[in-house]
Every structure is written in C-alpha cells, then in structure tokens.
Amino acid sequence: APVFISPLSDAVIQEGSKFTFICQVTGYPLPIVTWYKAGLSIQNNPDYHTAFENGLCSLTIEETFAEDSARYTCRAVNPAGETETTALLSVKETEPEEQLIAPSFTKLLQPSTAREGSPFQFECKVEGNPLPTVQWFKNSDCIDNSPDYIITYNNGEAILKFEKVFLEDKAEYTCKASNQCGTAQSTANLIVTPLKPTEAPAFVAPLSNVMARAGQKIKLECEVSGLPLPTLTWSHNGKPVKETRELKLQFEDNKATLIIYE
C-alpha cells in the first residue's frame, strides 16, 4: 500500500509570494496522486500546478492570495490501498503601504473686510499625509506666538482669530502648511474699516488739582469716553508732554494717567 515517507508540513507565508507544497510517497505499483483543497479536488484547476516524479509530489501556487488559505491534502492510491497527508496553508495579507501626500488646501483663505473693534477670524482647511503642521504669517512675519491672536488647528482646520480688530491689523496674512513631502500656502488680505464716530469725546472724570512738595511723586488721573475711543494728548503750559524716565503716561480702560516720580 502507498506510504508517505515525507508528509506535508503546515506553512505560513506572505500574500503575493510563490509557494510549493512537497511530499514524497512510495508504493508498488506506483500510486496515482490527487490534490485537494478543503476537501475539493484541484487536480485540473489552472491556479495550481501539480507534478509527480519518482515518488516526489508537488503543488505550486505561483502567486498566493488570502483566499488560498486552506487545508491541502495529497492522496495516493494504488490497487493495494490508499493514504493521504494533510497540511494547513495560512496566507497573511500584506498591509497596504501608507501613502505619503504633500499638503494641499481644500479651503483657501478669503480676502476679507472687518470693522474696527469687531471680532474676526480667518479660516482655511488643509490635508496631507502625514497631517501637515501650520504656521501663520502677517506680512511675512511669523505670528504663531503673538498674544494678539487666538490660533487653533484641529483635523486640518486652521483658524486665526482676532477678538477685536484694530486699524493696524490691516495686512496680508498667510497660512503655511508643511509635512515631509512638501509645503503649501494660502494668502489673503484683511482690510479694516475705521469706525465712524458715534460718540464725541467727553471727560467722565476730569483732572483734579494736585498739591505736592518738591521731589514728591505726583499722579494725575482722568477718565474719558467716546466711540471710537479718543486718542489723548497731554500738554504742559501749551506744549506737548513726552514720556521720560521721570514721567510716565498710561491709557487703559478709558483711564488716562500721568505720573511724575519726583
């Protein structure tokens, strides 16, 4: 009766590779060999190439796919009897290679006009793999670390936010996106419309007379209102007052202060 002197062995291979099952059988008269996949004959299947020479049996798969994973059987039969050998083939799927993609903008910055004193934000959207990093520029100067703006970046959506727009915010703004494959940028101009005066300047709390001795610190304060907020000028005997080491000028929250240290 036939005997497999070298049986099939289990195998694990990578998808796309060539693979051959080999076994060796003896018997007299020489057995007839048939191959099976999951119990079904594959003897005449063009996806598999079988050979049998001098007792050496082979089954070759030129290019393996995940669906080739199965239990394979080689059966040998002659008038004296039959025998078989079985082995499991496991084909591991190839992980798709991650494709690297250079940055590109799916939503560009738009030229905009904002009213002085109002909130405003620039928005754009970028994609790429890996996800690009972004930088913001005002007239070619990087403003990423400026306290004048609120910058957010989430899933490719980049926002540059102004809590309140000032006349000096009129400029060209650029968002630059970068990853290891390259860079891309989007640029737009911001125009700031000055506020029309709707409230004339008025002193809510005017200056008060102050008496001081020579060498003593003096502090003068007043509070002003108006829309837009007025600009202030201090004068002494009709001449403009300028800041020095001994004299400081402040204007904050509608309150103007002049300090003479001695």
From TrEMBL:
Keyword set, alphabetical order: Kinase, Transferase
All residue ranges annotated as the Ig-like domain in the record: 2-90, 103-193, 201-262
Annotated TM spans: none
Pfam family, one: I-set
Domain of life: Eukaryota
GO molecular function: kinase activity
This protein's name: Myosin light chain kinase, smooth muscle
Organism this protein belongs to: Anoplophora glabripennis
